[in-house]
Specification:
alpha+beta, Sufe protein. Chain: A, FAD/NAD(P)-binding domain, Flavocytochrome C3, Chain A, domain 1, 3 domains, eight-stranded mixed beta sheet, four-stranded antiparallel beta sheet, 15 helices, globular
């Protein structure tokens, strides 16, 4: 009997080994792939991103981006690091990188597209394991919150003045709004333009006039006097400038300095060439930079700020410091703050840094900081929000084409400086306009070509006649026809129109286009109030011990309703970043 039981058990064991296990079969199917090399594409921020994926029967062997037109530096993590993340995690369900989320998602979607015919891909959809969060305490002399040009300038200056420095940046990369900018710095008497423009008082007067007399004259004087040395310091830190200087804003003075790089042959580039050299220099001199790290709280004791708390992807930090510098940018990505402080522009497109959520303002207010808001913004205009504002169909916004509201009437001088153009749009909105259009004809091949692109992107309308165009776009027809007639009369007479606009080009040859243009923000105006030493003041106008600030987080003393000229913010942010860094280092000693 015992032998029979043993034999039966042995038979059952063999049968069990031959019986299919649904779970095992499912797992084998999920990892059974058609080995090979695959290519796929997906739309990025600018154009298609093309990837190559190599797989064997069970795993992803490699992912490589073959072609892309994404913005250099800004997209680096998406293009270079994300493919490695997918391979390391054997999953495309990985975290995207802040500051380049569109590019990140495009790489992921391109990988999915490439492998769409490679078999059962469920194994590559697994969610990443949650990171284990450590608690870390650090001690330093100066901690800088924010990695734009104000924060990097402050950190480098503090380090040069003998302080140990930690910089924290909540995005996965540094750069702030500067890295998204056109790369212009407004200055007088610099090594680049001292022969063309070297007049501090004239610069102060210009800034003050554009601020309608509401700016702090002393602070403007500090910014103007420091602008030349700011250019010199940036050059010392590795930034290259074009030899060309130009006018900007409404002043004919040649104060606009353009960033460049060694491969551009002196041609102007963009804001990336401010940030990359500063980042490299900061790392070379030993500044610790913690990206993906969000400052959440200022630490203070007996009225003195002495550090921050911050949250990272793998650690929560308590950083004790003798001085704290806030350089966290503006608030145009925070709709609650926009409604409260710049309500006329609430709900419009923000094309500044995605980190502009007002964090530094809120943290400083919690320790008694004084704030001032003007209701103004760094106003702008945009057609295609998926492209940089000086690329693609957005170039139409710079050509000075006839502009009308959906009521068929003009809203102002279409050739005006962009902050003024934005003000014109907002004033027209307050008067009842709901939409705005640039009206173009087919006379000029370049503008007509861009208009065709815009229509293909559903950003405008095309028709053979102005009557049909008005009907297609929902513009009041009779008013539009009258507006175009008056505009063309000025053009044919070669005279200035009622807005003072000159060099008008008649809208006469079909087909015609109506391309929608919208108000937007490049940043905000308002925030913390500073002393001349970049100290953050309290409600009694006294410095909060240990707390400093620079940049867009504290610019209400320099600007009012309208932004004065391209490069003003970068200039003032860098100058006061240097002041904050120097004073914070002195305080730490």
């Amino acid at each position: 009997m015992k032998k029979f039981v043993c034999l039966l058990a042995a038979i059952l064991l063999v049968l069990a080994g031959c019986t299919s296990n649904p779970e095992q079969e499912s797992e084998q199917t999920a990892t059974s792939l058609k080995a090979g090399t695959y290519e796929g594409t997906a739309m990025g921020f600018h154009d298609q991103i093309k990837v190559q994926v190599v797989i064997d029967e069970t795993s992803i062997v490699s992912v490589e981006v073959l072609e892309h037109a994404e913005t250099r530096f800004i997209s680096d993590l998406a293009i270079n690091q994300l493919p490695k993340d997918i391979v390391d995690n054997q999953s495309w369900n990985v975290d995207v990188y802040s500051g380049c989320t569109v590019s990140s998602n495009a790489v992921i979607n391109a990988v999915k597209s490439a492998l769409s015919g490679a078999g059962d891909l469920t194994a590559f959809e697994k969610a990443p394991e949650a990171a284990k969060i450590q608690e870390e305490t650090r001690d330093t002399d100066v901690v800088v919150v924010g990695g734009g040009i104000a924060g990097l300038s402050a950190a480098i200056t503090a380090k040069e003045n003998g302080a140990e420095v930690i910089l924290v940046e909540k995005l996965d990369r540094v750069g702030g709004s500067t890295v998204e900018s056109g790369g212009i710095l407004y200055a007088t008497g610099s090594p680049i333009n001292q022969e063309q423009d070297n007049d501090v008082d004239a610069l102060v007067e210009y800034w003050q006039n554009r601020a309608e007399g509401k700016a702090d004259e002393t602070m403007l004087k500090i910014a103007a006097e420091g602008s030349a040395e700011t250019v010199s310091k940036l050059m010392e830190w590795g930034v290259q400038f074009s030899d060309t200087v130009a006018a900007a804003g409404t002043s004919p003075a040649l104060r606009a300095h353009y960033a460049t790089n060694s491969e551009a042959n002196g041609e102007a580039t963009d804001g990336v060439d401010f940030i990359v050299p500063l980042l490299e220099h900061a790392e070379e001199i030993g500044i610790e930079i913690l990206t993906s790290t969000t400052a959440t709280e200022l630490l203070s004791e007996n009225g003195t700020v002495n550090g921050i708390k911050a949250e990272g992807k793998t650690a929560n930090y308590t950083i004790h410091a003798k001085s704290v510098i806030l350089a966290t940018g503006g608030f145009d990505l925070n709709q609650e703050m926009m409604q409260a402080y710049s309500p006329e522009m609430a709900g419009t497109w923000a094309i500044s840094s995605v980190g502009n959520t007002g964090d530094g303002i809120s943290m400083a207010e919690s320790v008694g900081a004084k704030t001032e808001f003007t209701g103004g913004v760094i106003g702008f205009k945009i057609i295609d929000v998926t492209r940089h504002y000086i690329e693609g169909v957005n170039l139409l916004g710079w050509t000075g084409q006839l502009g009308v509201t959906d009521q068929g009437i003009r809203f102002g001088n279409e050739s005006a400086d962009y902050p003024i153009f934005c003000t014109e749009l907002i004033n027209a909105q307050k008067a009842g306009a709901e939409k705005f259009y640039l009206i173009l004809d087919s006379t000029t091949e370049l503008t007509a070509g861009l208009a065709e692109q815009a229509v293909l992107q559903n950003l405008g309308f095309k028709a053979d006649t102005l009557d049909a165009l008005a009907e297609a776009a929902g513009i009041e027809k009779e008013a539009l026809l009258a507006t175009v007639s008056t505009y063309n009369a000025h053009a044919e007479a070669q005279e200035a129109d009622e807005y003072g606009k000159t060099n008008l080009i008649a809208v006469a040859n079909g087909p015609f286009y109506a391309i929608e243009i919208k108000p937007a923000t490049l940043g905000t105006i308002g925030g913390l109030v500073l002393s001349e030493q970049a100290e953050v003041l309290n409600e009694q106008n006294e410095p909060i011990s240990g707390l400093y600030a620079a940049g867009e987080v504290a610019n209400s003393q320099f600007f009012y309703k309208e932004y004065p000229a391209s490069g003003s913010s970068i200039s003032i942010s860098t100058t006061f970043g240097r002041i904050a860094g120097e004073q914070a280092a002195l305080n730490a000693k």
